[in-house]
Design brief:
Helix content: 25-40%
Structural class: alpha/beta
Order of helices and strands: EHEHEHEHEHEHEHHEEEEEEEHH
Largest sheet: 8 strands, mixed
Number of domains: 2
Oligomer: single chain
CATH topology of the largest domain: Dihydrodipicolinate Reductase, domain 2
Radius of gyration: 20 Å
Length: 333
């Protein structure tokens, strides 16, 4: 799909919460892009979404949306447990796919998706939108300009309090802490963004060692994770994630240290990029688009029209899945 005149006519499979503000409206706001159909298993909820967002068609059957001849591109926004199934069906129907993150529940599913993409010639891109947000691009710019000198280390700290809905495993309805649906726990849902961003900055991870455990017993997935990893370019990384701390102990920071200084930024809470060098400390503030995926959706549309290359592909996203899996593999033995 590389005609400069072609309009991308999208169908969304799984029009749940993530599509309400983060992503769905971006398909309507982007040039050469239209949102023409949505699907949800509940026909009532699908119709409600379509009416509220002024989408012409709605379905309760994914196969019917995939085979709608008007649709020429598909966004899979279901939980990860069905990403591979729907993405493969869409590509086999001759339609490029944009998939929510993480790409799938495991690396093997990612490999199957990539195989079908290659066999069909259908592009496969993944919703790691931080690759297009201004704060994250500023950090990349500082690194590439040599402001930090040679990069030595990067560290991730993410400590969050448990949600009330997670504290009773018998009544918990949060799919994000069900490994059968999510691949892992909140580590898969949130750390995937952070690890993908580091892949964007430094390239592939070459070695990974991790420890994972469940300390609070609220749900079957891991709730505490530590990892050490190294990148192809020699940068050493560490990560520490815990999703059951007290509210007073919450932290959210990525810190990158080089021979001439360091830079840090939060990943999930609003905050500045902070640069420290011999000159002192500087703060850089940025605003995100109203629909936080908008910049990446625009990039995907432009790539499908042959105008640019997509910054978040199935190949890069699969690498992130592989790292996630390596870190927690002993927990799921």
């Amino acid at each position: 799909m590389n005609s400069k005149r072609e309009t991308l006519k999208w169908g969304i499979i799984g029009c749940g919460d993530v599509t309400e503000v983060k992503s769905g409206p971006a398909f309507q706001k982007t040039e050469h892009s239209e949102l023409v159909a949505v699907m949800r298993r509940s026909a009532e909820k699908a119709e409600n979404y379509a009416k509220r967002h002024h989408v012409p068609k709605w379905y309760s059957d994914a196969d019917k949306l995939i085979n709608d001849p008007e649709i020429n591109a598909i966004y899979v926004a279901t939980p990860p447990g069905t990403h591979a199934e729907y993405a493969i069906k869409a590509m086999q129907a001759g339609k490029p796919v944009y998939v929510e993150k993480p790409m799938a529940t495991n690396f093997a599913e990612c490999q199957k998706m990539l195989k079908v993409s290659k066999e069909t010639g259908m592009p496969l891109n993944v919703a790691y939108y931080r690759r297009t947000l201004p704060a994250y691009l500023k950090v990349k710019e500082l690194i590439e300009a040599g402001t930090l000198g040679d990069i030595l280390t990067v560290s991730i700290t993410l400590h969050k309090a448990a949600e009330e809905s997670d504290k009773n495993p018998e009544t918990n309805q949060n799919w994000r802490v069900d490994p059968k649906i999510a691949g892992g726990g909140l580590f898969y849902d949130l750390a995937s963004h952070q690890l993908d961003y580091l892949d964007f900055l430094f390239g592939p991870v070459t070695n990974t060692t991790g420890l994972a455990c469940n300390q609070a017993g609220f749900y079957p997935a891991e709730d505490t994770v530590s990892a050490i990893f190294t990148f192809k370019n020699g940068v050493i990384g560490t990560g520490n994630w815990c999703f059951v701390v007290d509210k007073s102990a919450e932290q959210d920071k990525i810190e990158i240290t080089g021979t001439k200084g360091k830079v840090s930024l939060p990943c999930f809470i609003p905050g500045d990029v902070e640069l420290t060098t011999v000159k002192g400390t500087e703060h850089f503030s940025f605003e995100n688009p109203e629909n936080i995926s908008h910049n990446l959706v625009k990039n995907v549309v432009q790539s499908l029209r042959g105008e640019v290359e997509c910054v978040s592909t199935g190949e890069s996203a699969a690498r992130t899945n592989k790292v996630l899996e390596e870190i927690v593999k002993n927990y799921y033995k």
